[in-house]
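hey so i finally got around to running the thing on that chain from the lab meeting. sorry it took forever, my laptop kept dying and i had to restart like 3 times. anyway pasting the input first so we r on the same page abt which one it is
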Amino acid sequence: CKPPGKTVSVTTPGMSFLPDFVSIQTGDKVLFKLGGNHNAIEVSEATWDKGGNTPLDNGFKVDYGEEKEITFAKPGTYYYVCQPHAEFGMKGMVIVE
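ok and heres what got predicted. didnt touch it at all, straight out
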């Protein structure tokens, strides 16, 4: 029986995600606590690399000012941005092992 996963909080002080890099295990959760001017949407690696803000099909999304827990069930790298501030480098990454 696997113990319940841990939860890591990500907040938005100013124009950044804190922390902007999270490394977790399969089944762990990330709790996004976003300010009213910020959202968090999953994007492709290519979009993330170029500072774009096109959402990934079937990716996760946390709305402006929302507090939402996302459970990461599959290993991999998940890239996300704040849509209005992606071009200013407001982006983050979750690595799931």
